[in-house]
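[INFO] parsing input record for Mitochondrial fission process protein 1
[DEBUG] input buffer:
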Amino acid sequence: MTAENDENKVKEYDIYKDSYFRYLGYANEVGESFRLLIPLSLVKLSYVVASCYVVADSVDKGYLMWKKPTLDQETKYRQTAIATTDTLIWQGLASVAIPGFTINRICWMTNQILKKFRRLPTAIRSWSVVAVGLGRDRKSV
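[DEBUG] output buffer:
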């Protein structure tokens, strides 16, 4: 494919990447950041929201693959399964599991360090942990 063909190619709109809907995939990161200040049920709900985003994106990618014309039905089933599974695994790790675990540990460690400053008011310590959790690098957003 030449550079001219790349320029003439129309980019297909992806609601899961090209709209504000994509921020639902970050819900668990916000939940983890606020863990000290909100009920555990809300933290869990943030994981449900992020996981629903991942499942919806995976189903969408499978459906888009299903709509593509292929040579035979077996190839269509295989390509659809691969597209769905690939998106589910990739998004599950990249949007939910790895960031959630990382922010959880960073916030926990920050809280442990700040607890050593006994004169630091609890509210300042808690909000500092939230700020650290929310303040990680967002270049990819």
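[INFO] The chain has a mean pLDDT of 89.
[INFO] shutting down worker
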